Amino acid sequence: MWTFVSMFFNLDKFYKKNNSSDYNSSTFYIEKFKYLIELNIQLIIYTDQEVHDILLPYSSINTKFIITTFEEIELFPYIQKLYKIRENNPIYHNSRNIPEWCLTTMTKNEAINKAINLNPFNSEIFCWMDFGFYRPHHSYIDYSIEQLKSQLKLLQNSNIYKLNSIHIGFINWINKHIYNDINSFYKNGGPCTVSGQFYFGNKEAFNKLKINTLNIFKEHISQNYFHHDEQIFFYTILKYPDLFTPFSTDYFCAPFDVIFPQKRTFVSTGLLIPNLLKDNQINFAKILIERLLISHSLKKIILSDENLKFYEKVLLN
User: Which among 24, 96, 201, 226 would be 20 to 30 A from 242, CA to CA?
Assistant: First the structure.
């Protein structure tokens, strides 16, 4: 069985009073925790004592907590550096992406590795899932909590897992003319690249991931750049491609796309694969094309004749 890992720190006190988005509200996320419990998964939550006390009444026997304070996370010493480099940057004006929030996103792999060391369920595979992953009123979520529950069970019982690899969803790919110039890459904060909402692997893979992403983070922040974890993931994939097994997906639907791509595949066919090929990322493109073709053959999706011919040509080269 797998262990799922998530994390939540109440950052309300760090937001300005005029920034009243639901996505900055602890109440919003605590309500979403109830859906994680409904999934009936083995779950570890990385949080502080105050949030633990709030969540505990909703928890199940399959819920465990790792308690820490926000100020004790490994990256907290970078908080003042982030405030300084973002000073007077209009991109972050009235944004939920405050320094505390983006450092929390970079703490995912810390949380996973602490969960691996604890391993109360004696699991081999660990899966990150965002605390607020299931949002029934979000326009992207066209499935019920029961359908998500069934998909996670199917995924855990599949043989899709590749040893010592991080399985993560690719949403789009950025061209080398942009990512070779870090200033261009971060010009508007940071482009969409991967789905940091959901990814999985074993102990060895996550140990490497934590080390590698931390090195990339330190490199970027030393140059006065950092938006959130997904951009760090992208540069880690560029530098350590053999650590990753990609699947094509979009936001809020990754669990459905791991075995067979089946939701919003226009993102993959229209953006991801063309951009991978333009950047000469042939190996990644072939992996994703093979999964799309299998999904098409099983009638999970319908690819156009034009795409079918093009994909077959790419695989032959």
Answer: 226
